[in-house]
Backbone:
């Protein structure tokens, strides 16, 4: 975890630079985001003052943009911890520069997932009733429990691999930064005992966090599928939601990687090969998402139950048809067209495909929530929902605040795991030996390789 | 800063214990009211072990790293 400091420092100077100083470009980027965040906060104060009457929520559409955002944000959170943990467990060497960026998305976006629930409450103070008098028969309380478990686990899983990097920054920082990193680095010196404890902690968390992440989005899907509402009562909603979550999570990760790569000149660390590998994962998830969407709609069509048929046809050929077909194009046609072709599967191509998927997956969440509520099973009048400017402002403010927090994170902490990159450089022989151990029969003796790839 | 090193491990441990305490309170409420007992036991039997692992992380990993960092001497890069 520690190497010859001076030689490696000059190589990795670009990783320390954002943490040890702030450029004018950072403030130029942060100011509009801060302004949008403040506007969103103003809109929320209006909602607090006048109640949910300022939103577009109505009868029968009692869930709107906040619940859509909740499902969407929780989905995005699968970018980090899950992908990072799977790659760590598989010892995928290309993971090293991308795990931190992924884990940071998870922790930060989960706050907005939880925040969306609070925004959906006309009286947020009543949240404490859940803690005081909660009944665990309610899937809503399962959500509170599972998301708290996931957030705590993800925060720990982000923090543990950060400790050696905090020590590296501590040894180079001055003033308030030095105080901060001294506190956060827990006195890390890279002793054998400290390494043993850290590696054990990361290994345990990497195993634990995978089932926790999968269960979280399954529980989110149960909020819908435990009801008798048309097109919600589905046994595949759990895996369907998890697939969509990983899909949108990978897309968000690719966008954030491209952004930090460009902003901090990390082309030597976040290489086209990383984008290519993630793009192939995104392509596979696009096909899987299409399969689940097809299965979900086919069973509703084949069953022919009246309430389900009304919602299904409202989606594919009625009021929501433009959104439905836009979703199909954004989530399937565009990403597959770009990513299935080796020539277009470039860094820029993967970012375009990812942006398409992020928008498409938000539409998918919208199409799950609104058409069903607008066409209820019980004999209420049918309805419609369009978000008010207050809801749109709060949503824009939340997204801006998330991007702002991510920017601040990249300023406070190295966005690429420095010690893991160095460990990768120093462990090339070990990686070769591990590869040899996978192969059957006699293998030619291992020739040491330099970090530049020369033998 | 003399005692600050304890803050992070103890905060994580306190949060884990608080969540386990809340879960036990939910079990107690379900028992007293004879309401949702099966659901509460099921959720608690999953969540409490997970938070016990978080508690272990706080006490074994974080506390251990911080304590070793304060010991004089030892190998490693300062």
Residues:
């Amino acid at each position: 975890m520690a190497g010859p400091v001076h030689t490696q420092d000059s190589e990795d100077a670009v990783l320390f630079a954002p943490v040890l100083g702030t450029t004018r470009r950072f403030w130029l980027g942060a100011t509009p985001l801060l302004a949008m965040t403040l506007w969103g906060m103003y809109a929320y104060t209006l909602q607090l003052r006048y109640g949910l009457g300022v939103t577009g929520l109505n009868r029968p559409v009692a869930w709107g943009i906040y619940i859509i955002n909740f499902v969407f944000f929780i989905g995005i959170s699968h970018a980090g911890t899950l992908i990072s943990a799977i790659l760590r467990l598989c010892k995928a060497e290309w993971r090293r520069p991308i795990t931190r960026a992924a884990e940071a998305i998870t922790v930060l976006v989960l706050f907005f997932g939880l925040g969306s629930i609070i925004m959906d409450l006309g009286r947020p103070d009543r949240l404490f009733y859940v803690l005081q008098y909660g009944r665990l028969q309610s899937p809503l309380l399962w959500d509170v429990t599972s998301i708290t478990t996931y957030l705590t686990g993800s925060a720990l899983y982000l923090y543990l691999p950060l400790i050696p990097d905090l020590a590296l920054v501590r040894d180079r920082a001055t003033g308030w930064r030095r105080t901060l990193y001294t506190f956060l680095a827990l006195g890390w010196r890279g002793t054998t005992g400290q390494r043993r404890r850290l590696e054990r902690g990361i290994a345990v968390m990497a195993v634990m966090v995978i089932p926790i992440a999968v269960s979280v989005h399954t529980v989110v899907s149960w909020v819908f599928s435990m009801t008798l509402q048309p097109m919600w009562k589905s046994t595949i909603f759990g895996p369907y939601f998890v697939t969509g979550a990983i899909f949108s999570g990978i897309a968000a990760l690719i966008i954030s990687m491209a952004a930090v790569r460009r902003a901090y000149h990390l082309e030597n660390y976040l290489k086209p090969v990383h984008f290519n590998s993630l793009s192939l994962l995104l392509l596979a998830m696009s096909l899987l998402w299409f399969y689940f969407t097809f299965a979900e709609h086919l069973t509703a069509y084949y069953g022919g139950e009246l309430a389900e048929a009304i919602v299904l046809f409202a989606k594919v050929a009625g009021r929501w048809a433009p959104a439905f077909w836009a979703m199909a194009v954004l989530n399937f046609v565009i990403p597959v067209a770009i990513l299935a072709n080796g020539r277009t599967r470039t860094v820029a191509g993967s970012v375009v495909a990812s942006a398409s998927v992020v928008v498409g997956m938000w539409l998918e969440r919208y199409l799950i929530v609104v058409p069903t509520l607008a066409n209820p099973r019980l004999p209420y009048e049918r309805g419609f929902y369009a978000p008010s400017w207050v809801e749109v402002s709060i949503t824009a403010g939340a997204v801006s605040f998330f991007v702002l927090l991510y920017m601040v994170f990249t300023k406070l902490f190295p966005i690429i795991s420095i010690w893991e990159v160095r460990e990768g450089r120093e462990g090339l022989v070990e990686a070769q030996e591990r590869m040899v151990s996978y192969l059957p029969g006699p293998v030619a003796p291992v020739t040491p390789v330099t970090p530049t790839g020369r033998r | 800063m003399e005692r600050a090193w304890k803050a992070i491990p103890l905060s994580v441990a306190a949060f884990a214990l608080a969540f386990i305490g809340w879960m036990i309170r939910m079990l107690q409420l379900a028992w007293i009211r004879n309401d949702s007992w099966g659901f509460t036991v099921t959720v608690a039997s999953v969540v409490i072990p997970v938070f016990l692992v978080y508690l272990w992380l706080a006490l074994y990993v974080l506390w251990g790293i911080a304590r070793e960092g304060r010991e004089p001497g030892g190998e490693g890069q300062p």
Notes: The radius of gyration of chain B is 18 Å.
